[in-house]
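Whiteboard transcription, Tuesday session. T.W. wrote the structure tokens on the left side:
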């Protein structure tokens, strides 16, 4: 990734939820373009709907309103309580919600339905009818991890910071071939939650489901797999920052916003390559 720093996300200490944040307006973007919303207050807040906006309230604080037209996805802490109508309004506007537990780790997400399925959805449905789909899909995932590593190595070399051979072998072993049950970016769980929200939004935008059931009864968790590829890209980009990865929510949001545009492009490219690979495999099988 070669991202330039972007403006810090705003933290509204005077509002109903002191750590709820939306990014400051970036002059390169349209004024009304939707951005992520982080509701990270450690204190109890209630999210309701007020016309075209989310209304976040907290005891003895003024209500803070976030226009839904300006929200692309939401990450919320365990202290946030939702009214059902607020959740419904988010889903009606295709806004996914990722929920954290008391320790700050993501425990799940609320994903809008996909009203119109795409050609990628049709390809995946047919692909999952093959008995060898898992092997082929795992091969694709491994190739995507290798692509991310090779891109990082190339960018380092271009920046005059080449990766020596031992370090290259270790990075490839760790990120490409070592099978890990945990996501890449484990130093700050807010990264995982924010990238899960991004993945969920783009999976729906691509007209595909977050989860598919294959012919053998097992699942393809597409949104989770795309999220982990994004986590890998971010983890590689932040290599060498050390303790800076163990950071506050405000600082983590700044890092996420710095790389936001690159991560969004990467998400679209991942789904595009999956489309082409599924198409190639189905042509071979036919």
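and on the right, the sequence the group agreed on:
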């Amino acid at each position: 990734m070669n991202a330039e720093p972007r403006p810090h996300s705003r933290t509204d200490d005077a509002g109903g939820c002191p750590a709820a944040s939306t990014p400051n307006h970036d002059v390169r973007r349209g004024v009304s373009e939707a951005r992520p919303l982080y509701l990270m207050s450690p204190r109890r807040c209630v999210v309701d709907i007020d016309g075209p906006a989310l209304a976040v309230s907290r005891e003895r604080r003024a209500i803070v309103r976030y226009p839904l037209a300006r929200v692309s996805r939401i990450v919320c802490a365990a202290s946030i309580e939702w009214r059902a109508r607020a959740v419904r309004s988010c889903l009606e506007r295709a806004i996914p919600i990722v929920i954290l537990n008391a320790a700050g780790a993501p425990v799940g997400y609320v994903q809008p339905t996909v009203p119109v399925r795409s050609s990628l959805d049709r390809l995946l449905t047919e692909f999952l009818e093959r008995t060898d789909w898992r092997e082929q899909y795992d091969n694709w995932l491994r190739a995507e991890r290798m692509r991310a590593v090779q891109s990082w190595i190339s960018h380092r070399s271009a920046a005059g910071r080449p990766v020596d051979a031992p370090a290259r072998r270790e990075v490839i072993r760790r990120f490409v071939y070592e099978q890990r049950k945990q996501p890449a970016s484990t130093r700050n769980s807010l990264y995982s939650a924010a990238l899960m929200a991004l993945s969920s939004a783009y999976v729906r935008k691509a007209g595909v489901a977050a989860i598919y059931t294959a012919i053998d009864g097992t699942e393809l968790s597409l949104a989770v797999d795309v999220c982990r590829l994004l986590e890998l890209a971010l983890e590689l980009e932040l290599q060498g920052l050390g303790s800076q990865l163990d950071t506050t929510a405000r600082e983590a949001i700044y890092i996420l916003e710095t790389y936001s545009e690159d991560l969004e492009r990467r998400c679209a490219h991942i789904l595009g390559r999956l489309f082409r690979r599924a198409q190639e495999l189905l042509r071979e099988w036919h």
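Someone added at the bottom: The first strand starts at residue 9 and ends at 11.
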